[in-house]
Amino acid sequence: MSTEPTRREHVRQRRTRAFVGAFAAVLAVLGVTGLAGAAASSAQGPRVTHVQIDPGAGVAVSGSRLIVTTNQSLEKVDPAQVRVTPATPFTIDTSGRSVGLRFTLPLRDDARYTVRITDVAGRGGGPATTIAEHFRTPPLSAFLLRRSPAGDVIVRTGLTTGTTTTVFRSRHIEDFRATSGHLVVSTLDNAGHAVLLVTDLEGRHQRELPVPGPGTIMSLQAADRGELIGYTFFDADLGSGGTRESALYVASAKDEAATKKPTAVDVPGKEKRVADWRFVPDTDSILVLTYNGTMLLSAADGAGATDLGKGLAIDGIARGASVAVIQKADGMAQIDLTDGKQQPLVAAKEVAGVNGIVTPLPGAHAGTVRPTFVFDDANPDAGVTNLYRVAVDGTATKLYTVGAGDVLMHTCLSPSGRYAAVLVAPHVVDNPYDRYLLPIPRTVETRIIELADGHEVTNLEGFDLSWCQVPPPLVQ
Questions:
Q1: pLDDT in tens, 400-434
Q2: What's the predicted TM-score (pTM) here?
Q3: Which is nearest to 233 in space by CA: 254, 259, 208, 264?
Q4: By the 8 A CB rule, do 235 and 244 touch?
Q5: 131 to each of 65, 128, 222, how far by Cα in Å?
Q6: Of the residues 9, 151, 180, 221, which has the maximum number of CB atoms within 10 A of its CB?
Q7: What is the DSSP string of 318-329?
Q8: SUPFAM superfamilies recorded for this chain (predicted)?
Q9: Where are the domains positioned within the chain?
Q10: Is there a contact between 185 and 204 (Cβ–Cβ < 8 Å)?
């Protein structure tokens, strides 16, 4: 009998054993290498492998995030371990290999931020380390409306660069608002009925947004996030039975909502007409003031409304704090919209004159910006308006003066509260209003004031700056 098959079998077995042995040796080497790598990683402490931040979004809205990912699972990071420069409020969470900071207020524009996290420890032990990350926010830009007999335009302008670009033109623009991704423009058709046009932020891809019917749109507003807009609507045949008068509607500016009808806000009670209203920053809520003076806080569609008592007007709501400044029959008040608690607004110390609309600064304890009209005793027709920054204890610092003969029409703040946009109608006696549904003097200037020192950064032609949450009133 031949022994050749047996010899071949022995050869195969020896080769198999040799392969298995070599493979095991490789695995052992890899295992040792892996353990050595893990040991080295632990010995070095956590190292940053990825950083996520959108500085552009950070200057526009609150709630932007910095996420730092490391090569190890981390022990929980305490807020005391974190320092942000320039200082800004934040919350922090730790999840697996990542640490996330959420900035609760919009960030300062054109600033270099440093986030330093000390004593960052891995769950596997080893030394703690310090993580330092830097990013720079971009300069602010804003949209502005300019009217003229030749036609109306919406322009985008840089505050420090001085560059201005026209993004939208129309023969007639009543009002507009900018969301995070769209421009929503209120105009009129040939019959004088309201039309809402939506474009991207470059003025392209124009489409029409459905409206409740033939009529008039007023008090156009946009939420800080979510592409949500709202407005009050008046039927064209106002006065006939069953028509809508100052009915509140909300709608989405998102592209996929192009054909959806607006949602009527269900205002509880017998009085459905809305005299004033606001989106509450950083939430999905709205604050509504009805014609009979009832203040209601509810979801955007009106559900779950809470009665907050009586009021005369809503002056503003602070970003990052949900504190509303309200005009009441017995004076100005502040309402914490998280719990409904109310208290009188602290009077400004050593300030004389007639107060205008109060604008709350971002944050719970940042104070307010208040215009005050001062009559000239020698000439009652030639007064000035002083703009003050008022701290929570009433200490007032004068920032800016609008001269005699000019009118301060509107004041609103940049998202971070670094700047005030002051709308001024110069030489008002010789500056007649136009004939729009939202009338504005023929010549208006938007003056950008730095709140730190009252310095006038720039003077822009036009009004309705996109920082502003509401359109300018007829009088300040």
A1: 999 888 999 999 999 999 999 999 999 988 999 99
A2: 0.85
A3: 264
A4: yes
A5: 16, 10, 38
A6: 221
A7: -TTT-EEEEEET
A8: DPP6 N-terminal domain-like
A9: 1-44, 48-136, 351-476
A10: no
